[in-house]
Amino acid sequence: MNYNRKEYSEDELISLYRAILKPRMIEERMLVLLRQGKVSKWFSGIGQEAISVGSAMALEQDEYILPLHRNLGVFTSRNVPLDRLFAQFQGKKTGFTKGRDRSFHFGSNEHHIVGMISHLGPQLAVADGIALADLLDKREKVTLVYSGDGGASEGDFHEALNVAAVWGLPVIFMIENNGYGLSTPSNEQFKFNQFIDKGPAYGMDALQIDGNNLLEVYDTVRQTAASMRKNPRPVLIEAMTFRMRGHEEASGTKYVPQELFEKWAKKDPVENYEKFLLDEVILTPKAVESIREELKAEIEEGLQTAFATPMPVADREEEIADMYKPYIQQPVAPASGAKTEKRFVDAISDGLRQSMERYPELVLMGQDIAEYGGVFKITEGFVDKFGKERVRNTPLCESAILGIGLGMSIKGKKSMVEMQFADFVSVGFNQIVNNLAKSHYRWAQNADVVVRMPTGAGTAAGPFHSQSNEAWFFHTPGLKIVYPSSPYDAKGLLNAAIEDPNPVMYFEHKLLYRSISQEIPDGYYTIEIGKAKTVAEGDDISIITYGMGVHWAKQLQQEMPGTSLEILDLRSLLPWDKEAVRNTVAKTGRVIILHEDTLTGGIGGEIAAWIGENCFEHLDGPVVRVASLDTAIPFAPPLEAEFLPKQRLREKAEAILAY
Length: 659
Ligand SMILES: Cc1ncc(C[n+]2csc(CCOP(=O)(O)OP(=O)(O)O)c2C)c(N)n1
Known about the structure:
Helices cover about 40% and strands about 15% of the residues. The chain has 24 helices and 23 strands.
C-alpha cells in the first residue's frame, strides 16, 4: 500500500496510528467477550477502520459526524470515554441512552456525534439539517455522514443528496463501498459501476479513494473539508473497502468467496499503516508495543467499570416523562384587546407570521411556500418579509425535509415543515415516527419541529387529497397532535405548537380555510396544548369531537332543537384532555365520539375504551362512535357524502337518546 505522508509531522502520523489501533483492539476484545456470551451482538468494522478514523480525525472537533453500525472508530477518535461506550453496549444507565437503545444507536452533542437509528437512510437528511443550520448562521463548518453501499439504495439517500446539492449544504457523504449489503453483493444491489458516477448527476463533486489507506482517507477529507468550509457545497466520497467479518457476528460469511478475504487481508488498514511507520522508522517495535499496552489498559479499565455497573432499574414515571423534552407551557394572553375578523386560513397565516417575528431561529420549509405562497396561500408575502433563507421552497423530498428539521433542532433551530397535503406525509412517515418522535427518549435530543398538515375531505378530491391521518401519529409516543376547529384556536394552537420544543403535528382542515371566520385577537397569543374546549353546554348527550366534527355537531344541534347537546372540542389529540372528557360524561351520561377519520383504529376507539374503563358508573348507555366508513375516500360527491359520518350522526344521536 502506498502512503504519501506529505507535510504531516511524525506526531500527527503517530496519533493517527493510535487512533486506528484503538478500535481494532476494542473489536478484538469484543470478539472474545462475544464468544464468552458477555456481549449480545456485534457489528464488526474490522478492515474498514481507516475510513472512520481517517475521516473523523480530519475534521474539527465541533464538526458533526453521523456514523453507522461499523464506525466504532468515529467514537474512539472523538474520545468518547470507553466506560460509557461499553456501558452503552451493555444497556447500562451510564451509557448514552439510559439503557434504552443498543450499540451505536445514540448521539452525544458533547462529542458532536449523532448516531443512527436502525433504519438505514434517515440520518443522511439529519446531516443536511445540521449543515443547513451552520450555513444559515454563517459558521464555516462541514458535517460528515456515512452510508453503506447497500443503504444507498434507500430513497432517503437520493433525497438527502438532492437537497444538499440544491441548497449547497456543506455535507460530506462518505460511501463505504464494501461490496455487500448483509449478504447481497453489489451486482444485486445496483446497476451502475461506481458511486462517483452519481455525484455529477446530483450536481456535486465526487471522489473515489482507497478506503483502506489511512493517510489517503485523512488527507482527502482534510482537503475536501477545508475547501467546503470556504465554499459550502456537498461532496460525495466513495471509499473502497471490504468487510473482513460477517454482517454481524452471528451471521457468518459463507456467501463471500474466500479469495476476496485473501485479497483484502493483504490490504489490512491497521497492519499496513503500522508497517509503513516501522519501515519509515517513525515508530520502533518497542514503541508499538508500549502503545498497545497503553490502549489495552485503557480498554480493560473501561470494561471493568462498565461490567461493574448494575443493569438499570426501571422507573415508570421517568420512562414515560422522557419521551418528551420537559416543558411547562405558560399560555400567553394577547397583549391588547384589539381584534379583527379573520378566516381560518388567515388565522393560521397570522400565527405563523407572528411566530416568525418572535423566533428568529424559526425556519419554514415546504413545497412552493416561498414566492408562490404555498398552495393554500398561507405563506403569501412571507418571502418579502422574512427572506428566502427562512422561507424555503423545498424539492419534493418530504422525508429529507423532516429529517432536516431534526438536524436543525440539534443546532438550536425551530422548524415548521408544511406538507402540501396531509396525505403526502406517508412518504416522510419514518422520519416522524422513528426519528423525530423517539429522539428525546433515546438520547435526550428534542426535535423542535412542527409539521403542518392540511387535511380532510369534503372537496371531492379523492383518496389522496382528503385523508384524515391523525390516528397514524396518535399511536406514536413522543409526538404531540393538535387539531383546531376555529380561527381563534388555529392561531393560538399554531403559536403554542411552534413554542413547544417537541415535535407537534398540526392538523388544519382544508374545508374550514375559507368557510369560517371569527373575530380573533390581533396580537400574539397561545392556547394550552392538551386542553379541550366546551363549545356548547348541554345536558342530554355529550358529543366529543374535533376538527370538522365540531361543525357537524353544531349543525346537529340546530336540527334537533329539542335535544340539549354538549359539544366538547378536544383541540389537542396527543395529549388529550381526560379531565374534560370525564366531566362531560359525568354531566350527560350519554356519549357520542365523532370524527371524520375512518372508524377502525380511529382515535374514537381509544377515547371510548378510556371512558369504559374510567367513567363506567356515569354512563346511561353504550359509548357510540360515529366515523367515516372503513374505505378509502371516494372522489364523486355522492360517494364522498356516504363515506363521511355526518349523515349518520343524527340517526345515532336519536338511537342513543332512545336507549
Ligand atoms: C431501512 C432498513 N432496511 C433494512 C435494514 C436491515 N439491515 C441492516 S444493515 C443491512 C445491510 C447494510 O448494508 P450496507 O449499507 O452496504 O452497509 P454495511 O453493513 O455493508 O456496512 C441491512 C439490510 C435496516 N437496518 N434498515
